[in-house]
Amino acid sequence: MRSGNRVNGGPTTRALSFLLVLAGVFIVLLPFFWMLSSAFKPESEIFRSPPQWIPRPVQWANLLKSLTILPFSIYYRNTAIITAATMIGDVLTAAVVAYGFARFRFPGRGMLFILVLSTLMLPIQVTIIPRFMLFKAFHWLDTFAPIIVPAYFGGSAFYIFLLRQFFLTIPRELDDAAKMDGLGPFAIFSRIIFPLAKPALAIIAIFSFLYNWNDFFVPLIFLNSEAHYTVALGLTSLKGHFFSTINLLMAASLIAMLPCLVLFFLAQKYFMGGVVVTGVKG
Amino acid sequence: MQRKEAAWGYLFISPWLTGFVFLMGGPIIVSLALSLFNWDLLSPARFVGFANFSRLLHDRLFWQSLKVTGLYTASSVPLSLVLGLSIAVLMNQKIPLLSFFRTLFYLPSVVSGVAVSLLWVWIYHPEFGLLNTFLKTLGISGPAWLQDPLWALPSLVVMGLWQVGGTMIIYLAGLQGIPTQLYEAAWMDGANRPQTFFRITIPMITPVLLYNVIVGIINSLQLFTQPYIMTAGGPNYATLAYVMYLYRNAFQWFKMGYASALAWVLFLLLLICTVLLLRSATSWVYYESETPSRKKDATKHALRK
Hints:
The complex is a heterodimer of chains A (282) and B (305).
Chain A lengths: L10 H29 L3 H4 L14 H8 L3 H32 L5 H10 L5 H14 L7 H4 L8 H12 L3 H9 L4 H12 L1 H17 L2 H6 L8 H9 L6 H21 L1 H13 L2
Chain B lengths: L1 H33 L2 E2 L7 E2 L3 H7 L2 H32 L6 H9 L6 H11 L6 H8 L14 H10 L3 H12 L3 H9 L4 H12 L1 H16 L3 H6 L11 H11 L3 H29 L7 H13 L1
Antiparallel strand pairs in B: 1-2
Helix pairs in contact in B: 1-14, 3-7, 3-8, 3-11, 3-13, 4-8, 11-14, 13-14
């Protein structure tokens, strides 16, 4: 991102733009503040007009209480297992498949890659019913398998595309040199290319984490018993729960968002790069 | 040697091939076949021909759900285009704290649909919600938003715009990729700011526009979590999104055949939308990376227009 590419107006235009952007940022952040404020209020303070932005007293107990009305520790454990297992699958298969498309010539390669790209336009809702029947036949309903296993069979076309672009930038001479040293294709991939691709793999891991941590539709369809619920499903049942109140609901939502927010802040450099690559080169 | 290379190639892509056959391509064909049957998962499936499709045509809720998702898409895609691009243009100047602001704008896009939906239910609360509290200070008494058949769907659209940062940073990257020389040349020729915007900026970012519009349409057509959590499709079906109706038929009423017909219609809609957009793209999208000489020509062309 070269700063020379920006189009600058005069000082007044720039000052005005700055103020407008500042106002935009304020509007974007306001709902977060609203949630934060509500999450720490006592129940009696929630329905008060005008509202108080700084809760008095700050009711820290809401956090714990919101997690214990329903067994959220189980939901968090389930979500962690699903997210981690899916993330590993997404990264591994996307890398293997992308390497296949980037480095080997085989009949039908171009057409197959177009097929990969066209599945980008195929949302899960279109194929969910046959998937449901397939996994029912496997006796996988109400287990994590229908959510995790597909990640090991190609995962997302978007990740394959991203990694193929990355592999194309790695000079072929590297592969050739390794071949001279007597390495086979799989060894070249696993010992040389895969480690080199770490930045791109990190982007995919982040995308995958955010997607699976937040996903609602697929768990809703495949998980029935509460012992298998994810956090997203737990939040919906908390909404309908007799003892839940708005302050507790906000506290639970806040906690559910935290891992994503923390990850995003820690990894934003990788992340922004990834988002931009997909949009501009896609 | 070549055959060996091909064999390795197929081996490397085999996980995807398997997944494609069993989880994507196969299911599309299976769901077409299923749509010709009536099946509740318990009793044996019964062949009914195209009866499910003709029933769709007379199903009031099918048309309602099509209308809801259609209206949502038709309003949220253009709105997020205009808003996202406007913010990107503002940010594409040497303003302080740029990368920090960019991060903050992106925040709403990284958090869960369910938690966000719960938050916005509270924001839209008729009496004590953030929005109506704010309107009250202006002397306006706001509607009941999600409980109001007229306002429920627009409320979901506005909530979606909160996450506009996702498209904004892609526009911003597109803007930052435009060579400055183009603008310098235009100014030399006496072009003013609106002229440079419509004749340089817009043509140069058409690939990014196309990408954002396609992704926007695909995402909007999948609208589900927000109405499911926030309104349960109500009031009076005002937010019964298409996917929600599909979900109810398949997984609440177990009308697998009918739901498959719905899924196929969704598939066709997506196909038509993307094909039409990509077809039209040849006439309005400009790819600068084609060849160096063509690039120069196109640049000249863009300036002359």
